[in-house]
Amino acid sequence: MLFKKRSFDDAPAILEIRDLSVGLASNGLEVLDKVSIRIRKGETVCLVGESGSGKSVTSLAIMGLLPKGALEVTNGSIELQGKNLIGLSPQGIRAMRARSISMIFQEPMTALNPVMRVGDQIAEVLNTHTKISSREARQRVLDIMEQVQLPNVERIYRSYPHQLSGGQRQRIMIAMALVLEPQLLIADEPTTALDVTTQKQILSLIAKLQEDHGTAVLFITHDMGVVAEIADTVYVMKEGQVVENAPVERLLREPKEEYTRRLLRAVPSLVPRPPRPMDATKDALSVSGLDKLYHGTGIFTRTPSVHAAQDVNFVIPRGRTLGIVGESGSGKSTVARCIMRLIDPTAGEIRIADTEIAGLSRGELRPHRKHIQIVFQDPFRSLNPRWTVGKSLTEGPINYGMPHKEALAHAAELLELVGLPKDALGRYPHQFSGGQRQRIAIARAVAMRPDVLVADEAVSALDVSVQAQVLQLLDELQQKLGIAILFITHDLRVAAQICDDVVVMQRGRVVEHDTAANVLSQPRDDYTRSLIEAAPGRAWDFANFRELEAV
Amino acid sequence: MLGYIIRRILAVIPVMTIVAIFVFLLLRLSPGDPAAIIAGDMATPERLERIRESLGLTEPLHIQFVTWVGLLLQGDLGTSLISNTPVTTMIGQRLWPTINIAVLTIILSVLIAVPMGVIAAWRHRTWVDSAVMSFSVLGFSIPVFVIGYIFIKIFSIELRWLPVQGYAPPSQGLWPFLQRAILPCLTLATIYVALIARMTRASMLEVLGEDYVRTARAKGVKEKVVLFRHALRNAAVPIMTIIGTGFALLISGVVVTESVFNIPGIGRLTVDAILARDYPVIQGMILLTSFIYVFVNLIIDLSYTFIDPRIRY
Hints:
The complex is a heterodimer of chains A (about 550) and B (about 325).
Chain A: E1 13-24, E2 30-40, E3 44-48, H1 55-63, E4 71-80, E5 83-84, H2 90-96, E6 101-104, H3 108-111, H4 118-129, H5 134-147, H6 153-157, H7 166-178, E7 184-188, H8 196-213, E8 216-221, H9 224-230, E9 233-238, E10 241-247, H10 248-253, H11 258-265, E11 283-294, E12 306-317, E13 321-325, H12 332-340, E14 347-352, E15 355-356, H13 362-369, E16 372-375, H14 389-399, H15 404-417, H16 434-446, E17 452-456, H17 464-481, E18 484-489, H18 492-498, E19 501-506, E20 509-515, H19 516-521, H20 526-534, E21 540-541, E22 546-547
Parallel strand pairs in A: 3-8, 3-9, 6-7, 7-8, 13-18, 13-19, 16-17, 17-18
Antiparallel strand pairs in A: 1-2, 1-4, 4-5, 9-10, 11-12, 11-14, 14-15, 19-20, 21-22
Helix pairs in contact in A: 4-5, 4-7, 5-7, 7-8, 14-15, 14-16, 15-16, 16-17
Chain B: H1 2-29, H2 34-39, H3 45-55, H4 61-73, H5 87-122, H6 127-141, H7 144-158, H8 174-208, H9 211-218, H10 223-234, H11 236-251, H12 255-260, H13 266-276, H14 279-307
């Protein structure tokens, strides 16, 4: 593993945060507690921590973007080259934004205005802060778009965000942030929503632009792999405090704080788990020749048809886990939805136990639905916020004729099984954390006593430590109940930890299908290899604080 | 897009056919003999027979319908039973005052309500927001005629700035028109201001929490630009829907306001026709109103594509 080893001892500080405290405006509860961070010219500072640790609040406080009336700075200072930003007039703050400090965000789709052409959105920065003519502004926008390596800049200038890919949108955000050459770029999880290969491109783009312009970067992330790749210095945050900071290599090799160690230990390893013995012979789910074709639409100009999934074959024996790995648009979710019959496959067979369900009508399908259940990515949205947990857990069984009392007793047992207290039955989803909600979602799926559980990116929205717990839970449930799990993920680390077999999909096709150990350690397909190579920090064994030993 | 417009225009045909059948049956299926109702209590049998024949009521129902539709397609809505003038002429005379008042009312409402709603959302949970919301509730609750008479009392009787009532077409000069139209428009506008301001506020509140609003602020653009360039256009679809529906309602006539201010619009024409059982006029009005609704809805749907480039038909 090659860490950055540049020294910044002589570099001037660009941003100096001293003892910054931020509290809830309503009751003064501290969200940030005496946070101190120094960022020097040309340096990349990574701010890591779990959700709720105060990373994003810190970045918003620097930009003066704390939600008005909800959060306010109660103590400390934020100095930009010696000038305190706290207490600056609104005009002063506006003049600072984009010119001295600019920011890119996690989700480039929602961070761009959907009804404005992207070129105009970049040009707006110039029009706001400079007095150059519109022709000159246009030229500078096209220049910066070239610099962030967008193709066909004239066309993209006129495009709307929804017409671009995720990577292109994030490039637009970066162009917008860097067009005025600020001294500091704050990047709040800028690659979390992107595929690994796109992530790699964006990270190297940021590094290159940083080199060219001498920009300091404050990079907020929860991904330790990314940290290992790009950081000079790392600050670890926990519950509103900075618990540790050190140059990247020292932090990953010799973490001082227990919290940091725990955080690193939770990072799933890319080394696949040892293969489990195959004892079951019965297939819980078998898919053969699955096809999903989206026909083009339109009367005068027909949009081309899209093959979202093409000739997909696999089987999952009882008690085993099969992972489908691929980037966005690879068709992995399409396959999951076809199997759930949330959408109808164009062709192919789907067998659950011994029943062929691909050809069944909606009505005929009903009795078979309970055999196959799904857990979705975002537990904040997949549970009905107006229903108690008890109601969510019992709805399915009651639908299939279980008496109300029995269903409720069953639900209470399930909660225990997923590690939640029984009194959770009467509570609402918003009273639980993300990890707890995902446990509830799993309990809801398991309540139907399914043969097959489809987990569609079920741990992708969770912090690594919570992720590890949920993966553990799925494993235990599988051993107790003998469920077959179809695990859809874009994260190779997660796949390595939970899957027995892995299917790699690209553009609707299966490009590789083998045991997890073989796919991850001896990939045969170029695409699989590029996926593995793009995984950040793959040469580092985070959990053991050392280089990964060659397998 | 073009295909969509053509399809939508073709879709008008079944809608209008259903309306036409309903309108046609209205006269034929209403209780009692229409001829007797028209002729009045003192009519002779010969006169009744003449009326029946002039209305074509002696023919079988389907023949009557075909004849009626044939005339309709030629733009003949029949003749008023009361004034004996063609219905198209009557509606034509009355339509323009209503359209003029409606357009002016909607323009006034939008100019007042949209900024009000935007500012209320921007200053969410402050006294500004409460003031806008209180006004909104008030605007909904006070009956139109009360507002009308209050305006007349203040601006016409006490201050003597404007005439009490009446109407002058814009062709007689803009000032005479505005002088008479401004009070009825303001009166009508109160409820629309309340409605549009509420909708704008709700829609803006949602949009102001979006990431791209934060991005705009992070760029350092002025708050005014954040609100009106970035947020408002994203919030515009529901606002546009309300404005369009409001406009359709206004065009189909506003009886009370027209009565209070003595404006010769189609609202009063409709009420007079209903009271006098002037069936041809009632039929014409229903057809016209339905057509306006269908047409305005098409315009609203098409306006979405200009507001939001993601919407493509």
